[in-house]
Every structure is written in C-alpha cells, then in structure tokens.
Design a protein that fits this description.
This protein has 421 residues and is α/β, with parallel strands linked by helices. The protein is built from eight helices and 26 strands.
C-alpha cells in the first residue's frame, strides 16, 4: 500500500492551490490525483479573460491562470497522477484509485483534501418536454467542443439559464459566427455576475428573458426549434405566453452541482443547501483528517475565491499532519438568517482562528439598500450597509477573533434587514 502525508483528489484550481500551500507549510509527501489527461481542470477550456484580478491583480485567461499554478506545482516537485480515477475513499483515509499505468492502487493518507469541483445539471434534471434530437448541450460541454476540440456545435442558438457559463457561451457562439436568439432565465433575476451580463449580452444585443423558460423542444434528428413561455411567481408556465424560436441548438446553463459521489461513499455529511460537505473553519469535514475546498464544497463565482479557500484547506491539512490543530474547546455554528441561502463554513472552532474568521455566503434574492447584520447568540457584533446583493454573486465577511464568544452554544447568524427595521 502506498502512503502519502496529504492526498489531493482533483487537479483543478482548488487541488493545485491546496497542494502548493500544503508544501509551503512544511509537508513534503503530497500526491495530486487528476482523472483528466492534464492538470488545470475546467480552466483549460475557459479561454476568456477575467481571471486573477484578486490573486494576481491582473486579467488572465483560464489557461494562463492554471499555468501559473501548474508551474509552481512542478517547481516544488509535487507528485501528481493524470488519467487516474478515484473509486472510493474510506473513513480511515484509504483511497482506491485506478489508471492504465499503475493499475489498481490502495493509497493510505495522513490527510485527504477533496477538490473534485462540480458538474452541470443536464436536461434530465429539469425535465423539458419534447423530442430528443441532437443539438441539446450543456453550456460547459459546448465550451469544451469549441475551445478545446475545435467543433462548432450550432449556428442558431437559444440559451436556457443565465449562469456565468451560459452568458459566456452566448458571447462565444456569437464571436464564432452563430446567431444567439435569446437567453431565457426561469428566475426573475440573473444567476450570473453583473459584469458578464453587460459584457456577454448587452454588448452583443442578446436579449435576456427573465421569468421565462423552455417548455418544449421540437425536432426529430436535429433541434428545429424551442418553445419559450413566461412563468408566474411559482415558476409555472403561463398559458398563452408561448413563443416559438426556430433554432438548431439549445445550450443549458441551469446550475452546477458539487461532485460528491465519492464524498458520500466515505461517510461525509453533506449540506442540503450547498450539496457540498459541511466543513469547519479549517475546511475539514465531519471526518477527521478529510478536508474539502473549492466547488466541491459550494459553487463559487470567481476562481480567485476558490484559490483563497483552497489555500486555507492546504494550510490546515498541513497543520493537521503536524498535529498543530486544536480539537478542544467550544464549537460554534453558523446560521443562515433572513435573506441568506447558506453560509460556509458551518462549524467554527475559535481556538484555530488566527486573526479573522472568513464567512462566505449567497443571498436568496436581489436586494438593494439593505443591511447585512451579524449576531453571535443574539448579540449584534457587526452591521454593514449593502447597496446591491444578488444570488449570482458570492458575499464574504470577516469577523475578528476577539468578537467570537467562547461558548459551546455560540450561534453566528447572518441576516438581512431593511433600513430602519
């Protein structure tokens, strides 16, 4: 049986950042396992710019951003295995993996970091009625075909869902000569970043149809058109509002799901809202020595935030290996109050916080001129006025270590309150 101090599952931006940070914190025997043929994960097909503004203070494309971390990984001589599939993980931190070079492997790890990223929701997940012709793609699949494989997926396109990948692909298809008829969004607000709505839709005069959805796909061998209808406040199509769009391609950008099948096999408890592991302040799951970071925990909007979170996981995995983590004392919990969908991390051990506790969250609707209020056991410790909040953009707040109450029943709540409430 092979042994490594830290085993990282996933060689995308999260896994790379975690591995490098663990190495910088004094752990030498590290292995990164990646199921694809190259490191970098989804970044390799994201050839648009906009990456790295927080981490590097400059605009990079996805491959450029990934390359900086791949080079650093190689400079540190951190081991990695490509084309390798992890089959399962056990609570005693034994991982089963397989590839064509080594065959079947059992690997024992001092600590494991889960960094498998996320996957797209498919047509089957949203039950669109109609026939099943060619020409229906998830936006990420279309992105890979065009940017990496060199195939054009269609010429007359409708996009369902206004997540960031859908918005970016609306622009990409336009630049490749396709006609993008519309982007339909079920919710009354966009699921993507404001900058992407402006740069990818408004700059190219592509209409965004909020509170609309595709109700039918038509076509036998190839998509011939889709029916789009307006929806009511319960997200049900309104009869009589149907409109037919003649097209040959439908791209789906209807949400991302953390990739957690092997997490479940290892007995890791998942948050029902994020669909990712419940983690503490060090990004450790409910199983001691197994950490998680990046989109496998919750879906991020910026890769820079994935990097920051993954560095925290790598650092704390290294601290765990060196027995520097304090497991005694109080355990606080975070609670999503009014207007907040979820908060990560969910569990807090105050003794392990250096200076500040970083909390990440998303709101459940679009809000303007509203207060974000943080309380600990009902006592207000911080209040911030926010001009604009939207579900498509992740929010981050910092809480000073001294503000955390050392009580076993501590509950840290984040809520939204209207002015004057």
């Amino acid at each position: 049986m092979l042994y490594y101090d830290i085993l990282i599952i996933g060689g995308g931006p999260a896994g790379l950042a975690a591995a490098i940070e663990a190495k910088k914190n004094g752990v030498d025997k590290i292995l990164v396992i990646e199921r694809d043929r190259e490191l970098g994960g989804i970044l390799q097909q994201c050839i648009h710019n906009g990456f790295g503004l927080h981490i590097f203070k400059e605009e990079l494309t996805g491959p450029e951003y990934a390359e900086r971390f791949i080079k650093e990984l190689q400079e540190f001589k951190i081991e990695y295995k490509l084309d390798t599939m992890v089959l399962d993980i056990r609570e005693d931190r034994v991982v089963s993996a397989i590839n064509t070079v080594d065959g079947f492997m059992s690997i024992k790890a001092g600590a494991i970091i889960l960094a498998m990223g996320c996957r797209e929701r498919t047509r089957g997940a949203i039950n669109i009625a109609g026939t099943r012709p060619a020409g229906v793609f998830t936006a990420g699949t279309a992105q890979r075909f065009i940017n990496m494989e060199g195939y054009m997926v269609g010429k007359k396109v409708v996009v369902l869902g206004s997540g960031d990948i859908g918005l970016i692909m609306a622009r990409r298809m336009t630049l490749e000569g396709a006609e993008v008829l519309a982007v339909a969004e079920l919710m009354p607000f966009s699921g993507g970043l404001t900058r992407n709505i402006v740069q990818c839709l408004e700059d190219f005069d592509i209409p965004l149809l909020l509170s609309h959805t595709v109700t039918e796909i038509r076509g036998k061998d190839r998509v011939e058109g889709v029916v789009i209808a307006k929806v009511d406040e319960n997200r049900k199509p309104i009869p009589g509002t149907e409109k037919y769009f003649e097209c040959d391609t439908l791209l789906l950008s209807v949400g991302l799901i953390p990739e957690n099948e092997i997490s479940k096999s290892g007995g890791i408890i998942l948050d029902p809202v994020t669909s990712g592991p419940i983690v503490n302040e060090g990004m450790e799951t409910n199983i001691e020595g197994i950490f998680a970071c990046g989109n496998v925990v919750h879906v991020h909007d910026l890769v820079d935030f994935v990097t920051e979170e993954s560095r925290r996981a790598g650092k704390n995995a290294a601290r765990y290996i060196k027995k520097e983590v304090k497991n005694y004392g109080s355990m606080a919990k975070t609670k999503a109050g009014t207007g907040i969908s979820y908060i990560v991390p969910q569990m807090i051990r105050g003794e392990n916080i250096d200076r500040t506790l970083d909390l990440f969250m998303r709101v459940d609707d679009v809000y303007t001129d509203i207060n974000m209020v943080i309380t600990i056991d009902g006592k207000e410790i911080k209040r911030m006025k926010k001009r604009h909040l939207a579900p498509g953009e992740m929010e981050a707040i910092k809480i000073k270590k001294e503000d955390l109450i050392a009580s076993e029943s501590s509950v840290i709540t984040v809520s939204l309150e209207k002015e004057g409430a």
